[in-house]
Amino acid sequence: MPAVAFLAHGLPPFARAVRLLPIPEECHLKPWRRALFTFAAGLLAAASSHAHPVCTVVADAATGQVLVQQGDCAARVTSASTFKVAISLMGFDAGVLKDEHTPTLDFHAGYPDWGGAPWREPTDPARWMKLSIFWYSEQVAQALGQARFQQYTSAFGYGNADVTSKQGELSGVMGAWANSSLRISPLEQVAFMRKIVRRTLPVSAHAYDMTERITLIDAQPGGWTVHGKTGTGSPGLKYDGAHAYGWFVGWATKGPRTLVFANLIQDDKRQTPNAGLRSRDTFLAALPALAEPGQPQ
């Protein structure tokens, strides 16, 4: 029976445990073994690209049962652009955002434009979420005002819920979610996604509906309809691209089942594409196998 040797350095205990994994014929693989192998392969891919996995957690949205939890899933780090999902809910609930194409805001000199030319174009909510345009987040947060921005974040129970403290280069409505005061763990990300799916947050039905529309991604691995958001940040209070975090959080639905998830990796050197995109791609490749029923945690 053939075997594949997995690199153990930098991987969580789960991956080290399967560094020599027998691969039986595909037709004889039980669902959980297939999930195990696919997930381990994804971790290997992350490691071989000069990044290491921090945490992957997947839970059933209806029951809250954790299906997969590997790595350090309790430590809080910057939420980075995953917080756009929360800002979307706030903006649509407060009426700052109207629908997926309203309002369209123009770029102005002085706005953050590290995303290049696409960030300098007129932007609506759908484009904001798809291209992860930082200045649009700032405009929505400023329209809410600092007090209401903090109230929403606290009401959502989002991580440490601190969008007020002045830390780092950005703070408050100007970017508390970007290497600043706001911190959240992968387990807390999953809890927040579950609140969205179950619609238990203090926002309107319209806010949920619009946020679902603009977070829908094109990929449908294994027939799963996925809503999600990437995020790229780093430790500390100033962005360090050589040690970037890569988030991918959201929920996936297939038939009667909905899963909520968070995937977090960290780079060991500066590289492209950004860590958030690579976290997303690794997770989506493994999703159909991770979603198989009957696998161990």
TrEMBL record:
E.C. number(s) listed in UniProt: 3.5.2.6
Keyword presence, Signal: yes
Annotated ranges, domain Penicillin-binding protein transpeptidase: 55-281
Keywords: Antibiotic resistance, Hydrolase, Signal
Highest taxon above the source species: Bacteria
InterPro entries: Beta-lactam/transpept, Beta-lactam/transpept-like, PCN-bd_Tpept
UniProt keyword annotation of Signal present: yes
An individual GO BP term: response to antibiotic
Family: Belongs to the class-D beta-lactamase family.
MF GO annotations: beta-lactamase activity; penicillin binding
Catalytic activity: a beta-lactam + H2O = a substituted beta-amino acid
PANTHER family referenced in this protein's UniProt entry, alphabetically: BETA-LACTAMASE YBXI-RELATED, PEPTIDOGLYCAN D,D-TRANSPEPTIDASE
Any one cellular-component term (Gene Ontology): plasma membrane
Pfam family membership, one: Transpeptidase
Protein name: beta-lactamase
